[in-house]
Amino acid sequence: MHARSSPTPSPRFVTVLLLLASGAVVGAALLFQYAGGFAPCELCLYERWPYYAVVVVSMIGLSSGNASAMRALVALCGLIFLAGAGLSFYHVGVEQHWFAGPSACTGSAGGADTIEALKAQLMKLQPVKCDEPAWTLFGISLAGFNLLASLLLLAFCLAAWRRLGRRRLR
Question: What is the pTM of this model?
Fold first, then answer.
């Protein structure tokens, strides 16, 4: 008997999935922000940028219609998700106090010598702290869930890139 391998997805299908997944993550973040009332911290806003980039890259790939270009864009999306995972890991580390976070959104104002210096420090502080998770589920913060999403999408990109390469060899 001969084992049959599963069919290889088309580059267009993979690109559409990346576009939909990135849109869903950004949509969930916006839903938490506007419907749930969870204002994002500075790092939360930075963590959205990789998804915005993948949306743009995916749309470019879909508009090109070129299978080789879409395979290259899947690899680029993988690199973008790798960077997003790194940023999310940093944010989780800031929440866990493994790393120092940006001074504008962690800790408290202090060390001011004058009233003017204290006012300047207070004006620089963000209202939402990066080192205090606004919401958790099973002990995992939104930054932690973003890390998981970035890693899953990175794994998807790597698997799809390999399978798309095998498809071309046939």
Answer: 0.80
